[in-house]
Design brief:
Blueprint lengths: L1 H30 L8 E8 L2 E4 L2 E5 L4 E6 L9 E6 L5 H10 L2 E5 L9 H15 L2 E2 L3 E4 L3 H13 L9 H10 L2 E6 L5 E2 L5 E7 L8 E7 L13 H22 L9 E7 L8 H11 L10 E7 L8 E4 L8 H9 L3 E3 L13 H6 L4 E5 L18 H22 L4 H6 L1 H7 L4 H12 L5 H4 L7 H11 L4 E5 L9 E5 L2 E9 L2 H37 L6
Parallel strand pairs: 3-7, 4-5, 5-6, 6-8, 12-13, 12-14, 14-17, 15-16
Antiparallel strand pairs: 1-8, 1-20, 2-3, 2-19, 4-9, 9-20, 10-19, 11-13, 11-18, 15-17
Helix pairs in contact: 1-16, 6-10, 6-13, 8-10
Family: Belongs to the nicastrin family.
Pfam families: Peptidase_M28 (PF04389)
Organism: Parnassius mnemosyne
Length: about 550
């Protein structure tokens, strides 16, 4: 019996299946994308900086979103994610996006070396404006790719506003035919990161009986709007490289008792720099000066901090003008560099320069830098990448600093230096290959505090620097604790995520498609209903007789 029912079911399909195909196939063809592979994309994106400094929030406070992508000229509500090249968005547009848009996605330049000076300055000023604001909407950055370029072009030309369309019909057609994108980032809710800032220090002991100490310090982290893209070639890979090279030069001089200098030399590398108020230096100084058995900073002659040394002009930044006849003034006269004097303002959220941490503890300190101001946007930019010119400037500044420091330590006059310069050039010669190696290595690594202070001191950049410094002297790695009740700073994750872009049509397209499908089904329905009558008339015309049922 069930076989008879199956035959009946088959007869139904034989009679009506062609009609089903006639109805369904065109609908499927209309609704299916032309290229299913091109309908979605996946990208690695990098989240904007998020941290608290003295409980004051900075940066982006959100991570996830699922919004429609729009260009700078076509977005309008919080349901839109604005997608643009970073060089195209102005500060005024950013402020509007910050207050009204749902999310912001900025694509970095394909090659920052082809940017004009005006474009670089614009990007740096934009970065400064963004870091000074707390932003509730998610903000992400992406590296340039052909796929992103196509998406931006589609968004720029696909959504044509009414004032750009000639007629209302043209505006409607442009709206219906445009391609849209749904942009999705599924990331975890921002969480506090466990930060463990470290300080690496080593000492070259001077001649016995000489108690004076010269401190050479640099921070090796980088500051930037995007932690995962903060390479900091100039600020402050250059300072860390200069410290390592000076350590190598003077370790060779101090290795022989006959030519060992009088003062001891202390080399200090810290993992938290100006973006977080030199917290690691502050904690290290507390450990060294407030401890009863700490003797490493006994009778400090001066502290020389190294920061951003890749530009042509070298400058000495001080909080108090060097005293005439003092050690700092002696070194300055040998360096032959200008002085920029800026008093310490404890009311400011951030200290201006590294040396101010030492000056607060009543030490004579200064910072050598090729930047003329602590407010220079080049200190915290994603455009701070390595170049051959910067490398040459760095090597030149290291050579000048080494010669001036040796001249001060050994109390040589200009006449004595010039008697046989070849001797000093040989003893103080820099290894350009070593400088290049470390400069390229450090500037190829993201070194934001979110990265260098959350990884193990025995891994990554910190471990590499500790091993390098330990080749020239005994070193110590100090890990500093952050007060959990009143933390001076707090870092947040995530710093990167996966972004998915889906090709979609606008909502009005769905409405018009629905109306078109209804109209099509109506035509098919009436065609099927009227087909028998049409067939009878056709048969009568052909045979001259009416069809007999």
């Amino acid at each position: 019996m069930w076989l008879d029912e199956a035959d009946g079911f088959a007869e139904i399909f034989k009679g009506y299946l062609p009609y089903y195909l006639l109805v369904a196939l065109p609908i499927f063809i209309i609704m299916s994308p032309v290229n299913p592979v091109a309908a979605s994309h996946e990208f690695s994106v990098y989240r904007m900086q998020q941290y608290d400094l003295h409980t004051v929030p900075h940066g982006c406070r959100s991570a996830s979103f699922n919004l429609e992508g729009r260009s700078l000229s076509s977005w309008s509500t919080s349901r839109h994610c604005v997608v643009a090249h970073i060089q195209d968005i102005t500060i005024e547009q950013f402020m509007e996006v910050r207050s009204k848009a749902g999310a912001l996605l900025l694509v970095l330049p394909k090659n920052d070396t082809v940017l004009t000076p005006e474009e670089k300055e614009h990007i740096q000023l934009l970065e400064m404006a963004m870091t000074q604001q707390e932003i509730n909407a998610p903000v992400y950055f992406a590296k340039w790719s052909p796929e992103f370029e196509d998406i931006i072009k589609d968004l720029q030309h696909g959504f044509i506003t009414d004032d750009k369309s000639g007629t209302a019909l043209e505006a409607m057609f442009n709206t219906v035919s445009s391609n849209g994108y749904q942009i999705v980032v599924s990331a975890s809710t921002p969480q506090k990161m466990e930060s463990k800032p470290v300080t690496i220090h080593g000492k070259l002991v001077g001649r016995s009986g000489a108690a004076q100490t010269i401190v050479i310090a640099a921070h090796y982290d980088s500051a930037g709007l995007v932690p995962e893209l903060s390479q900091g070639a100039d600020s402050n890979a250059s300072g860390a490289v200069a410290l390592l090279e000076l350590a190598r030069i003077f370790s060779r001089l101090y290795s022989t008792a006959a030519v060992r200098g009088g003062p001891s030399l202390v080399f200090v590398l810290t993992s938290v720099g100006h973006s977080l108020n030199y917290f690691a230096t502050k904690k290290w100084l507390e450990e060294q000066l407030d401890s009863t058995d700490a003797t490493i900073l006994t009778d400090v002659s001066f502290v020389m901090c190294l920061d951003s040394l890749s530009s042509p002009q070298l400058t000495m930044h001080v909080s108090k003008p060097p005293r005439a006849g003092g050690a700092a003034n002696s070194l300055r006269s040998r360096l032959k560099v200008p002085i920029v004097h800026k008093k310490i303002n404890l009311a400011d959220e951030l200290l201006a320069w590294h040396h101010e941490r030492f000056s607060i503890r009543r030490m004579t300190a200064f910072t050598l830098s090729s930047l003329q101001s602590h407010k220079d946007p080049a200190r915290s930019t994603i455009l701070d990448t390595p170049s051959e010119t910067s490398l040459k400037n760095l090597a030149s500044h290291i050579a000048v600093t080494a010669r001036a420091l040796a001249s001060h330590i050994y109390n040589l006059t200009d006449e004595e230096n010039d008697e046989d310069p070849a001797i000093y050039d040989d003893a103080l010669a820099v290894e350009e290959a070593s400088i290049k190696h470390w400069y390229e290595y450090l500037s190829s690594q993201p070194r934001a505090p979110q990265i260098v202070t959350t990884s193990s001191p025995n891994a990554g950049v910190t471990a590499a620097l500790e091993r390098a410094l330990s080749r020239y002297m005994d070193t110590t790695v100090s890990t500093h604790a952050i007060d959990k009740r009143e933390p001076e700073y707090t870092l947040y994750s995530p710093v990167r995520a996966l972004l998915y872009v889906y090709s979609v049509k606008p909502a009005v397209f769905d409405l018009i498609l629905t109306l078109a499908i209804i109209a099509y089904l109506t035509v098919v329905y009436f065609a099927i209903q009227l087909f028998p009558r049409f067939y009878e008339e056709y048969a009568k015309l052909v045979t001259g007789k009416a069809k007999v049922h």
